[in-house]
Amino acid sequence: xxxxxxxxxxxxxxxxxxxxxxxxxxxxxxxxxxxxxxxxxxxxxxxxxxxxxxxxxxxxxxxxxxxxxxxxxxxxxxxxxxxxxxxxxxxxxxxxxxxxxxxxxxxxxxxxxxxxxxxxxxxxxxxxxxxxxxxxxxxxxxxxxxxxxxxxxxxxxxxxxxxxxxxxxxxxxxxxxxxxxxxxxxxxxxxxxxxxxxxxxxxxxxxxxxxxxxxxxxxxxxxxxxxxxxxxxxxxxxxxxxxxxxxxxxxxxxxxxxxxxxxxxxxxxxxxxxxxxxxxxxxxxxxxxxx
Amino acid sequence: xxxxxxxxxxxxxxxxxxxxxxxxxxxxxxxxxxxxxxxxxxxxxxxxxxxxxxxxxxxxxxxxxxxxxxxxxxxxxxxxxxxxxxxxxxxxxxxxxxxxxxxxxxxxxxxxxxxxxxxxxxxxxxxxxxxxxxxxxxxxxxxxxxxxxxxxxxxxxxxxxxxxxxxxxxxxxxxxxxxxxxxxxxxxxxxxxxxxxxxxxxxxxxxxxxxxxxxxxxxxxxxxxxxxxxxxxxxxxxxxxxxxxxxxxxxxxxxxxxxxxxxxxxxxxxxxxxxxxxxxxxxxxxxxxxx
Lengths: 291, 291
Hints:
Two copies of one chain form a homodimer.
Chain A: E1 4-5, H1 8-30, E2 35-41, H2 45-60, E3 64-70, H3 76-88, E4 94-97, H4 107-112, H5 125-133, H6 150-161, E5 170-174, H7 181-190, E6 194-198, H8 205-209, E7 214-217, E8 235-238, E9 242-244, E10 247-249, H9 254-257, E11 263-264, H10 271-288
């Protein structure tokens, strides 16, 4: 039996409409729109098109959006100063720092200049720490509010909206980046899954994946996860977005795996579509901190 | 064949002597002793004896130690003010906040008052976040210096000093506390193990433990890990310290497991002995930040 397709694109549309209603009410009540500023140095094509996509979806939902582009050779001080200025600006509620930063710029220093309360993509170490320290679902959180990176948050939202049970399940996260793999593992742990984190030095990845009820692939290698690595009925969340020739594809061999899995996100149209709406949701949360 | 006993007590003695030499040199060169302040509210017996143990080992190594005891009914503001005052005091390099805090005191608020640079037990969310965001061993760290909770740091040190290979191995951490389980999992991941985090909602814990080359038990349940749950030759690190009748014992059934495991920490005399020396090491690191 072919897997249920976890349609991130359709879900993002639904959530986008829900958020647009929330934004309209927010503006009516408070007289301003939740607004995110995007910071970029240079014109990396992927970053340019990503910023355009954010802009278009933010505007569609009635959210504010500003773009701040420095030259590709901007210094660490220039970037840090911009981030500090936006952090202090009461009309800016969210800040996204696009990568890549210019060569020689210390990412850690730039991120430290970001107000944690405006960190709508959850990159500041204090937000990562609050996610790491949060108590499991069903118990008092143990930490203040925090922001989670939008991409894993979108993956989790797909699981929840499709009613996938997480508590007590075995989850395997392939990849350990700070922006997807590790926060996804911590989110699944928060929701009471038993979580295994795999990476490039994991021997026999297939055997470990086959134990999983939920597989999250976030490693950036086209079609790494094949049908023989998936337990029949498992739920597969694909965070990969790899170019192979003229085609974009995930970390999962979709055609093969969909015949084995119980449910699977397509690429494109899966997790990628959700990132934007999670940024929107985080921007609304950030604006509420200003009230 | 019986397991190698990973003698934390002997190792702690060795490291304590190494650190005493380092402290003597530090004092000679800089004219002051690295000093940690312990903050406590009330007279919880376990906390009192733990503080005494820290004091005695710190003094033995030539480190400075101060104790700050508030009444058991101290308010959140009183505790927070004390922590802020110590955070601002240039003669205090490390701060340990003992638990339990009085009822109704928000632990998160108290910890937020702690200077991350003096957080020698790694409880501040920014230190937890830096550990969560750190790059794997062998790559540039990606974050500033940070402090790791002393107990898991001690467990890692046992593995390293006994030459246990971590990279490419499967590690299972049983327990997900902020002070042991989660940081231990992140340390093992940093050192390139494939890490699984188990907890009270994990079904078939035995089957998962049997896959592990390294088992870390940090759950606070006497003799939870039995011989049938351990793969022959596995390395077992026991962070448990449970009272059963008149006896103290770990989370691992030592007598049974030592016949199967390749190496095992005893309780007492294993990880517990290491916590103190790791606090000492972190205190020296903290004092270096003041130079």
